Amino acid sequence: MPIRTAEASPDPDANLLLSRQLCFALHSTTLALGRVYARVLAPLGLTYTQYLALMVLWETGEISVKRLGERLLLDSGTLTPLLKRMEAAGLVARQRDPDDERRVLVTLTQAGAALREQARDIPVQVARICATSGLDLEALKTDLEALRGALGEPGVAPVSTGQ
Predict the structure, then answer these.
(1) Reported pTM
(2) For residue 9, is it within any domain?
């Protein structure tokens, strides 16, 4: 469904209606999806951002803090407290890279690795909830990635362990 630009609207004041804003549709949908994830992640004791970090670590096994931030599109002011909480919960360990003391590496603990099996059904649960919309979720994801690219924002970088 194409979105009309401000120039194409017959009523310029209509362009300022909240209900017509793509940004608000995305924002409110993100909030709603966040509530869905909070519900399905609660039994695991995870937040959505912790879940994202664990997914990267389940892929890589070990990754630098800098690279993890790049993968998750998080700055160090957000990532460092997140990792400290995850470390306190026994999910991850952080240590200096023996080859480069400036780098900090993040690895899974046994508890963090064990959560992978428990989390295996999370994407299925979320997809079932979202499927009630009747939308083609794969096409929606592709469209959102294309929009992000058109806005000049990076996509999810390929997996590269330890970097």
Answers:
(1) 0.84
(2) no
